[in-house]
Amino acid sequence: MPARSSISGAKPADHGLRMPAEWEEHDATWLAWPHYHDDWPGKFEPIPWVYAEIIRHLARHERVELIVNDAASEKGARKILDRGNALSDNVHFHRWPTNRVWTRDSGCTFVTTPSFVRPDSRGRLSRRGSRRDEIAAVKWRFNAWAKYSNYQDDDKIGRLMAKAANARELRPLSSKNHVVLEGGSIDVNGCGTLLTTEECLLSKVQQRNPKMKAKDYEKVFAEYLGIKNVIWLGSGIAGDDTHGHVDDITRFVSPDTVVTAIETNPDDPNYEPLRENIRRLRASSDQDGKPIAIIELPMPAPVIFEGRRLPASYGNFYIANGVVLVPVFNDPNDRFALDILADLFPDREVIGIYSGDLIWGFGAMHCMTQQQPGSSLLAASS
Fold it and tell me: Rounded to whole angstroms, how far apart are CA atoms 358 and 25?
């Protein structure tokens, strides 16, 4: 049974839960194979080939746990991956139905935790046995960004991922309600600081948890992710279907450094919101009270399809073992963004993945992936 627990008044160190930073070692990356044509109306045909390119790069560095709807879906995926030189023993298939493929949001959030933390008979976390760190899976409730009605299969994915990874499942509660949260709404430095936005978590538009306020989220983050310090940014970017996910705008690239999107055109709707986010970052500090270094990341020119502004951003990159995958848009700023990230990750390949078609689904590299922490992290912290 999952741990449906609340740690009243507890500090993060009391239970040892920690969400590792994305650049820490992975055992695997989780993805779901695209199948829902309505996420890319009129443009679905190239999408599986984009996935094949992403999987080809990832599978060279870590295991890929690939979710497919059924046997027929697996057969089709294998055919495309084989033709795209992306099929290998490092790709493992799971036949689980999904509504959509944005695993960052529908899947669980993996954390490390001492094995002596166990739910007691009242559902509260308690210390039992000897210490040996392992992974746990924070199973958020998923409701399709409080926007769509077809999410019932996606809401089950986090539990299935946890079981497949042999991770104990933890279900965060706030006022006895299972907390709704998407992975794309948060970003962490692995040391106790978390980034998020007021637009996503505190707005009444696409409201995930109507009764929760900032202090309630901060308590949940402390208890289940090991967070000591939350930096609240303002808004996300124009065209974001999620209403303010932070993984399009500001990302940690080291424990004390973020990259944050900037818009240089004062007539662009992103100009002032992104300036306000930088102001907030400059006034913020990390978990130890030290200032955070800020690296500016350009925005591409607006990507518009069928008259709609799409959430194109270089900030939606994904950091894996040995590689950083970055959405690019055949834009002059592509090379500047890739150079900035290459300087920040000198020990990894920084690879641009053309996302002009992919972004019609309102997501890119980070939205589609979810990392599973590596076993050496557990050994190091034991």
Answer: 27
CB 99 within 8 A of CB 151: yes
Q: Decide if 372 contacts 27 (C-beta within 8 A).
A: yes
Residues known to be catalytic: 367
248: in domain: yes
> Between the CA of residue 110 and those of 21, 98, 272, 381, what are the distances in Å?
11, 20, 34, 15
Task: Give the pLDDT score at 113.
Answer: 78
**Total length of the chain:** 382
CA distance 184 to 248: 8
Question: What's the CA gap between 344 and 56, in Å, rounded?
Answer: 23
CATH of the domain at 118: 3.75.10.10
Q: Are the beta carbons of 257 and 293 closer than 8 angstroms?
A: yes
**DSSP letter at 299?**
P
**Domain enclosing residue 288, as ranges:** 12-377
DSSP state of 358: G
- Strand ordering across the sheet containing 257-262: 250-254, 257-262, 293-298
Tokens read off for 152: 């019932």
CA distances from 128 to 4, 110, 112, 114 (A): 17, 21, 16, 10
Q: How many domains does the chain have?
A: 1
Q: Give alpha helix (H) positions in 126-170.
A: 144-147, 154-164
Model confidence over 153-193: pLDDT tens digits? 999 999 999 999 999 999 999 989 999 999 999 999 999 99
Supply the mean pLDDT for the chain.
Answer: 91
Three-state DSSP class for residue 202:
coil
Residue 122 vs residues 16, 116, 231, 236: alpha-carbon distances, Å: 20, 16, 33, 39
